[in-house]
Amino acid sequence: RGMRVAVVGAGVSGLTATKCCLDEGLEPTCFEQSQDIGGVWRYTEHVEAGRPSLYPSVISNTSKEMSAFSDFPFPEDFPVFLPNAQLLDYLQRFAEHFSLREHIKLGTTVVSIRKHPDFATTGQWNVVTEAGGKQTSHVFDAVMVCSGNFSEPSLPLHCFPGIERFQGQYFHSRQYKHPDTFQGKRVLVVGMGNSGVDIAVEASRVAAKVTISTTRGSWLLSRVFEHGYPWDMVLNTRLMNLIKTNLPRPLLWWFMNYKLNQRFNHENYGLQPEKRYFLPVLNDDLPSYILTGRITIKPGVKEFKDNSVVFHNCPEEEPIDIVVFCTGYNVSFPFLEESVIRVENKHASLYKYVFPTHLQKPTLAVLGLIKPIGGIMPVAEMQARWVSRVFKGRGANVSPPVSQNAAQTGHVLFGLTFDEILKTEWLVYLDTLASFIGAKPSVLGLLCTDPWLALTIFFGPCSPYQYRLRGPGRWEGARQAILTQWDRVLKPTRTRVPAASSSSFPSLLTVMGFLLLLAAVIFAF
């Protein structure tokens, strides 16, 4: 019999984990507590305990070409940024196409995962699940934890003096579904993550007044980026990455400042972030809503009064009726013992954000906990490809350092707070894991054999298909998918005039790129 792997959760990470196990000849069983697959992308009208909660208007922050699983492009007629229902549809198609459903047990909750008594030699785990009120125990050879981090809301009320005397209504963004709650009300949104800004924008269409309170400010990106291209297809390229990783810090800071302030000056809009590098927020409407007075940006909350709020450095009180706390989520693994994954002040101690650093055997992995500036799906998939090979014993050279000193230097403390300073360049992280399994594309190698592809890979967007050109899990369609990516981007929007060839963008890039390369070479010498 093959190696038996338990996969916890059937969202984005759980589905790709199940598929990667099958690709490596392992035997996955995926446990999903709710009644269907899709995780955070499956909208339900009611908030369910222990499950992520979505509001109906959620749209993906990353474009379809940069969010696809690497051997399964989105249908060409799907919009470039996906409403949640279409993203769920894609996940269902993915599950059908790779026959994943027969390996998924729905309505089954994982109650506990404990080391098997002879873990030190076998690396096995005792897994207890519950379905229909009945508990079952199993023994698995390995475990992939794909339960996500959007289930346990973080609501630190003790940080908001006076909240107990506030007469109005307040709730965590997880409870939010429809804007009609805000009809004619004065609304305060605390926190400026993606949900906070989304909710503020929606509220401002029906509310009397909307204020966003943010301690740190934030960079704001729009889905519609330079020349109307998707932001991630412009920013997440190998050329851009080369610039970002090789520029001296002050120069990089100037470059990012310049790039991000091109659309509007963040300082003038009260948004300039205090910390130097952290996750930008994605929203297309906020600047114009600030300009038209629908939304006001204020500093952090000092205290609440009966019917009002006082902000830091602002003497006057602001009357409010409803507060939405967009204060993020706690990471929790209720089914695991503390000793397996230590979560301290929202940090989990994980090698490459995946393997707990102090297990004797690398037979448990956590997927999809990382918050990169880029699509999470390709990242979860790459983690799953690596992990399934480690489980199988190929790639043993990357097992996490066990000895304490090695662990001190080798492991990374990963901050799971929204505003944690960016620890990981999306592309660098993907390349690192890809090189562990031999799937990293070689631009120089391709320059001799397939120059057009090499240039597209280097100057164009780093779409996930690049990681299927070689190595284990190589996909025949990868080259074609890369060369036609712009066609799939333009297909859903060029609906009035016949679509011409879309190669003008890459060729422009190529010219620019060569000039930049030339400059880089000159400056290097």
UniProtKB/TrEMBL annotation:
Keyword terms, alphabetized: Endoplasmic reticulum, FAD, Flavoprotein, Membrane, Monooxygenase, NADP, Oxidoreductase, Transmembrane, Transmembrane helix
Obligatory cofactor(s): FAD
Membrane-protein topology: Single-pass membrane protein
Major localization class: endoplasmic reticulum
Residue intervals passing through the bilayer: 505-524
Pfam family, one: FMO-like
Highest taxon listed in the record's lineage: Eukaryota
Keyword Transmembrane helix among record annotations: yes
Cellular compartment(s): Endoplasmic reticulum membrane
Designated name of the protein: Flavin-containing monooxygenase 1
Gene: Fmo1
